[in-house]
Design brief:
de novo design (two linked rop proteins); mainly alpha; single chain; 4 helices
């Protein structure tokens, strides 16, 4: 769990550092801003998910993290496909963003499965204690 928290915190730091290396031209300004917004919110939204008040709230907040990580990957792909940057750091960040998306998808599936099992367990408990 701490490893994931650290990754969620490091991704925004690395994204912001990468954005400072994107050329300063006007044509890059929009992409830089578009990447900085979702890239910097991944960790904050994950932190909010960890403090969720219910399982459905947790799943919803993980969906936000998934969307933000996926949007980050999109803008990193745009930088690559437009030939604007050929940085190994861009490649690493894109890979990390895609991994975070996969982790969130898997975490949501696990959370949903536990949500489904819980009412069954409760019903069994109530039946046995009646």
């Amino acid at each position: 769990m701490n490893d994931l928290k650290n990754r969620m915190k490091q991704f925004p730091v690395d994204t912001l550092r990468f954005c400072t290396k994107i050329p300063k031209g006007m044509e890059f300004q929009i992409i830089r801003g578009q990447l900085m917004r979702p890239g910097s919110s991944v960790g904050a939204n994950y932190r909010a998910a960890c403090r969720s008040k219910s399982l459905s709230d947790f799943i919803n907040k993980l969906s936000i993290v998934e969307e933000e990580a996926d949007e980050s990957a999109f803008w990193l792909e745009i930088l690559h496909e437009s030939g604007m940057t050929k940085s190994s750091e861009r490649t690493r960040l894109e890979g990390e963003a895609n991994q975070l998306v996969a982790i969130m998808v898997s975490s949501k599936k696990t959370a949903r499965a536990s949500e489904i099992k819980r009412p069954i367990s409760r019903a069994l408990f109530e039946t046995r204690n009646s």
